[in-house]
Amino acid sequence: ILNVEQSPQSLHVQEGDSTNFTCSFPSSNFYALHWYRWETAKSPEALFVMTLNGDEKKKGRISATLNTKEGYSYLYIKGSQPEDSATYLCASARTSNFGNEKLTFGTGTRLTIIP
Amino acid sequence: NAGVTQTPKFRILKIGQSMTLQCAQDMNHNYMYWYRQDPGMGLKLIYYSVGAGITDKGEVPNGYNVSRSTTEDFPLRLELAAPSQTSVYFCASSYVGMGNQPQHFGDGTRLSIL
């Protein structure tokens, strides 16, 4: 994988249900994996930055895992609420001769919670 | 806390006109970035800056110019607007330029070229 790919593209989930979605990224020269939450008409907001293989991070009902060797990360939302409706972006940073400050973004998973 | 402030929020330009999109941050971040967001595409990096006086091209720099005279400000200039530049533009900043630091985004500028 050369690009950052997210699946599914969109998702409708009943309020109260749990859900998860995937980010696939290049495993070579991996440096960091970011997750952002992007609500309509607002700016993307950082959820997690993960760097270590096997890392798990949690913020309230949202958690993420990271597998750097196979190049994927999962984002989990437990007990979905209407306020979780947003687009979730992931982005990867890779090491290079020119530094590792640049992120490559996926196209996002658009999550809609049905009340 | 203002964070990252972008102006204007919306703008319509005619083909061939020029304009500057403003971006300012009050977090004393060294690194600043300009992205564009097109439908169905991920955020694409246009230019970035690692500090005052230093800028570098991103993935899609053609048709744009930037400058960074202060830590706070990172304007993006379109010299000869073209329809292909119709997009939503986001400015972002981070404390240091390591990929393991989160980026802080402005609210975006929606630009239409007609």
Looking at this protein, list some descriptive labels.
heterodimer; A: 115 residues; mainly beta; six-stranded mixed sheet; B: 114 residues; seven-stranded mixed sheet; four-stranded antiparallel sheet; 11 strands; 48% strand; globular
Question: Short summary of the structure?
Answer:
The complex is a heterodimer of chains A (115) and B (114). Chain A is 0% helix and 55% strand.
Describe the structure.
The complex is a heterodimer of chains A (115) and B (114). Chain A is built from no helices and 11 strands. With 115 residues, chain A is mainly beta. Chain A has strands spanning 5-7, 10-14, 19-24, 30-38, 45-50, 56-59, 62-67, 72-77, 86-94, 103-105, 109-114. Chain A is globular. Helix content of chain A is 0%, strand content 55%. The model of chain A has no long low-confidence stretch (mean pLDDT 93). Chain B is mainly beta. In chain B, the strands form 2 sheets. In chain B, strands 2, 4, 5, 6, 9, 10 and 11 form a 7-stranded mixed sheet that branches. Chain B has a 4-stranded antiparallel sheet with strand order 1-3-8-7, with no helix packed on it. In chain B, a hairpin with a 6-residue loop joins β4 (31-37) and β5 (44-51).
* Gross morphology of chain A: globular
Query: In this structure, how is the largest beta sheet of chain A organized?
Result: 6 strands, mixed
Mean pLDDT of chain B: 93
What are the low-pLDDT stretches of chain A, counting only 5+ consecutive residues below 50?
none
Head-to-tail CA distance between termini of chain A: 36 Å
Helix/strand-derived class of chain A? mainly beta
Largest interface: A-B, 25 and 26 residues
SSE order and pairing:
The complex is a heterodimer of chains A (115) and B (114).
Chain A: E1 5-7, E2 10-14, E3 19-24, E4 30-38, E5 45-50, E6 56-59, E7 62-67, E8 72-77, E9 86-94, E10 103-105, E11 109-114
Parallel strand pairs in A: 2-11
Antiparallel strand pairs in A: 1-3, 3-8, 4-5, 4-9, 6-7, 7-8, 9-10, 9-11
Chain B: E1 4-7, E2 10-13, E3 19-25, E4 31-37, E5 44-51, E6 54-57, E7 64-66, E8 76-78, E9 87-94, E10 104-105, E11 109-113
Parallel strand pairs in B: 2-11
Antiparallel strand pairs in B: 1-3, 3-8, 4-5, 4-9, 5-6, 7-8, 9-10, 9-11
